[in-house]
Amino acid sequence: MHVTFPGRHGADPARAVDGVDLDIRPGEIVALVGESGCGKTTLARSLLGLVPPTAGRVTFGGKPLGYSSRALKAYRKRVQLVLQDPSGSLNPRHTVYDAVAEGLRIHGYGGDEQEAVAQALSRAGLRPPERFFLRYPHELSGGQRQRVVIAGALVLEPELIVADEPVASLDASVRGEILALLLRLRAELGLSALVVTHDLGLAWNIADRVAVMYLGRIVETGEVERVLTAPQHPYTRALLSVLPEAPGDPVVLTGEPPDPSRIPSGCRFHARCQILASGEAERAGVADACRGEDLPLLDGGGRAQVACHWARAVRT
């Protein structure tokens, strides 16, 4: 899939998602990890039908996503979004009950609305649910507000949740509770989830599989334990090196990620790559390839893969 945005004042288009193939299986949690600006939120929005792809397509259950209002309405009953900031997600004038019931009303739910809202709040860990019905967002803690947002997603009984930085705005003491909740919901309801995050520690705690994204492409993917204990791509190594429990000194990347309207030739990470800068790529005989030879896209399967000339040369 590709998603491009027009450049300003005649500039080249920005390639926010520049060729991504990603599968999410039933009952699987996939973490999409990368720096701010790497394209992961645009990819998540495309999966929800909010940003149509410029090329490629989104499929769900083997069927291509349609973009008519009727098709999108049916799709969004099965795929729900959980945003980063619960305060921004909730209307301050709506009670908790109305916030959770909104999806039911949009989709013309024909059952017992109060029972459905109570069940969703209870699943999200707000018990007894009736105690929260008439409260407003400002009367809740940050963790409780995020649980209300999750309840609003759960009330339609979706098959997939796309969670964009779901705990980034929460205190450390609450983060673990929300992550445990997501894992429990997967176990009880068979939910699938795409968790978008810049935090590899979060990915380690919640995901089955991780996809590391840089400048519009996935550069390394595989089972979370394998990728995070034996990272192959220099970018993944740099991200992991700043975790408190990481051995050795943190890798300080030079410069900022390139402008997505001017993606460099060769490996898109080569201008900031510590392996190329240290001479290791030269000794492996791949320095010229790093600077000038593009890498093929990784396929969306679950096996461990890396888009790096040096990692491939060392591995072989």
How would you describe this protein?
One of its GO terms (molecular function) is ATP binding. One of its GO terms (biological process) is transmembrane transport. It comes from Streptomyces montanus. With 316 residues, the chain is of the alpha/beta class. It folds into two domains: 2-211, P-loop containing nucleotide triphosphate hydrolases (Rossmann fold, 3-Layer(aba) Sandwich), CATH 3.40.50; 231-315, no CATH class. Helices cover 37% and strands 15% of the residues. It is built from 14 helices and eleven strands. The protein has helices at 40-47, 69-78, 86-89, 96-106, 113-123, 142-154, 172-189, 200-206, 224-229, 234-241, 274-277, 280-283, 287-292, 309-315; strands spanning 2-5, 14-18, 29-33, 59-60, 63-64, 79-82, 160-164, 192-197, 209-214, 217-223, 305-306. It has a seven-stranded mixed beta sheet, with helices on both faces. A two-stranded antiparallel sheet has the order 1-2. Strands 4-5 form a two-stranded antiparallel sheet. Strand 9 (209-214) and strand 10 (217-223) form a beta hairpin. Helix 4 runs parallel beside helix 6 and helix 6 (142-154) packs parallel to helix 7 (172-189). The radius of gyration is 21 Å and the shape is globular. The two termini are 29 Å apart.
Total of DSSP H or I helical runs spanning 4+ residues: 14
Overall shape:
globular
Strand order of the largest sheet: 6-7-8-3-9-10-11
Q: Say how many strands there are.
A: 11
- Amount of beta strand: 15-25%
Q: Largest sheet at a glance? A: 7 strands, mixed
- What percent of the residues sit in helical stretches (DSSP H or I)? 25-40%
Order of helices and strands: EEEHEEHEHHHHEHEHEEHHHHHEH
Point out poorly predicted stretches: none
Keywords: ATP-binding, Nucleotide-binding, Transport
GO molecular function: ATP binding; ATP hydrolysis activity
Family: Belongs to the ABC transporter superfamily.
GO biological process, one term: transmembrane transport
